[in-house]
Design brief:
The chain has three domains: 202 residues, 3-Layer(bba) Sandwich (FAD/NAD(P)-binding domain); 139 residues, FAD/NAD(P)-binding domain (3-Layer(bba) Sandwich); 58 residues, no CATH class. Helices cover 33% and strands 26% of the residues. Bound molecules: flavin-adenine dinucleotide.
Length: 433
């Protein structure tokens, strides 16, 4: 590396972790000309992933999307559109595949980006566990594109099932969700809320939709205390959601899902939300050490087996001392890791020591849409406290607000929150196209 060149920091993946890091380093280093920060993402806009079930249900306001180009301009980093497909550690080079439009035309050719420091933050995808038919027949909520696809299919299926049909013989639309973790449970509640809204918009008598959650474990929400799982279960049952617990899925077909005990659950729409893995192309990333779900193994400073490559967020496997396993793939972990690695990079540039990452679990919250929010809060002084209702809803929202503050700052976040509140009160509550 020539000494008069700026230090090149390349961040791949602008999600909960990567976009916060790029923004932080842009303000700390990019603005002062100390380093050149490049964020590469496969898409042009960022949506905070925990909002994807709102996208899927059609209830998300489009203004919640962040344009990478605009964010880069405001925050003193550069954004490059493209999907990473390879790495050459000896050359310190990241390979990005050509960008192709829906018509198959090449818009941007393949490119190579050189780095001095590389941060991998490409997130995770759903783990199908190679179960027959899952990849072909299930919908996933891994990306904004998939969530929009879901939303379109939901609305079209609703129209097909109910409009112009005889009320006496109409067959209700059936949706089966595999996985009763927070994603599956939140999606079920959100979909229930949506069908209620569709009914209000003129389909009142024919709004019943059959919602089923299928889960291999005998309890839903395994990460939460049993008491809260039971409260959530009661709420879902009250909403008419059918729960098939202790049932392992063995096959998915176009018309439904078969479980290990031979039961066939008919479903027009099938959603897979049963566990994550890092993308398959990361399995052989020029010899970087990975685990059985393709995550890059990192040490307590979030460094991979290469001294100049870090990994944060869902694609990183970071041991959680005192717990039997790794830091969980959650937005709060991504947020904390972005902060830690940002400090480490700045310290390294000054010749200082890396920062040890310590994960603080502030608890888990599950939002059942407009119905309720439940969860537990963790704190050194109070231990674990179960919360529900309004307080839980406020705390749940605050996780997203923290992400917005990291990206937009306090003033813009306050203005965005205010304008969204007005917008939501004036416009249609769900997207219908
Ligand atoms: C529906 C849903 C609900 C959730 N709800 C919650 C919740 O309530 N609370 C909670 O704590 N967590 C929740 N999570 C988990 C949380 O969203 C993730 O843990 C968090 O987003 C991980 O952040 P990340 O930066 O690692 O990845 P992501 O936020 O997924 O970002 C990854 C980024 O990398 C980009 N990318 C991927 N591949 C490439 C490539 N090859 N080249 C370039 N760019 C690439 C993607 O486009 C994306 O922008 C939820 C997840 C889902 C799917």
């Amino acid at each position: 590396m020539q000494t008069n060149e700026k230090h090149k920091i390349v961040i791949v993946g602008g999600g909960a972790a990567g976009l916060e890091l790029a923004t932080y380093l842009g303000h700390k280093l990019g603005k002062k000309g100390i380093a050149e920060i490049t964020l590469i993402d496969a898409t042009t806009t960022h949506v905070w992933k925990p909002l994807l079930h709102e996208v899927a249900a059609g209830t998300l306001d489009e203004s919640e999307q962040v344009e990478y180009m605009a964010q880069a301009h405001r925050s003193h980093f550069q954004f490059r559109l493209g999907k990473m497909e390879g790495l050459n550690r000896a050359e310190k080079a990241v390979y990005v595949r050509p960008t192709i439009n829906d018509q198959g035309e090449e818009l941007i050719p393949s490119r190579t980006f050189h780095y001095d420091t590389l941060v991998m933050s490409v997130g995770s995808v759903s783990n199908t566990f190679n179960i027959k038919g899952v990849a072909e027949h299930c919908l996933f909520l891994d990306t904004t594109r998939q969530a929009f696809k879901f939303q379109k299919q939901l609305f079209e299926s609703y129209l097909k099932s109910y409009i112009g049909k005889d009320k006496a013989t109409v067959k209700p639309l059936s949706i089966a969700i595999v996985g009763a973790g927070a994603t599956g449970v939140e999606l079920a509640a959100q979909l229930h809320e949506v069908t209620d809204v569709l009914a209000i918009y003129g389909l009142k008598e024919q709004s019943d939709v059959k919602l089923t959650i299928i889960e291999a474990a005998t309890q839903l929400l395994p990460a939460l205390p049993g008491k809260l799982a039971i409260a959530t279960q009661q709420q879902l049952v009250k909403l008419g959601v059918s729960l098939k617990l202790g049932r392992r899925v063995v096959e998915v077909s176009p018309s439904g899902i078969t479980t290990h005990d031979g039961e066939f659950i008919e479903a027009d729409i099938k959603v897979w939300a049963a566990g994550i893995k890092a993308p398959d192309w990361m399995k052989n990333l020029d010899g970087l050490e990975t685990n059985h779900i393709n995550q890059l193994i990192v040490d307590s400073t979030l460094k991979t087996s290469d001294d100049d490559i870090f990994a944060i967020g869902d694609c990183a496997a970071c041991q959680w001392p005192g717990h039997n396993g790794n830091v969980p793939p959650r937005a709060q972990a991504a947020h904390q890791q972005a902060t830690a690695v940002g400090k480490t990079i700045i310290s390294r540039l000054k010749g200082g020591q890396p920062v040890n990452f310590v994960y603080y679990d502030y608890g888990s919250l599950v939002s059942l849409g407009k119905y309720t929010t439940v969860g537990n809060l963790m704190g050194n002084l109070m231990g674990t406290v179960s919360i529900g209702g309004f307080i839980a809803k406020v705390v749940y929202l605050s996780l997203y607000k923290m992400h917005q503050v990291a990206i937009h700052g306090y003033f813009r976040t306050a203005m965005l929150t205010l304008s969204n509140a007005f917008r939501r009160s004036a416009y249609i509550k769900i997207k219908m196209h």
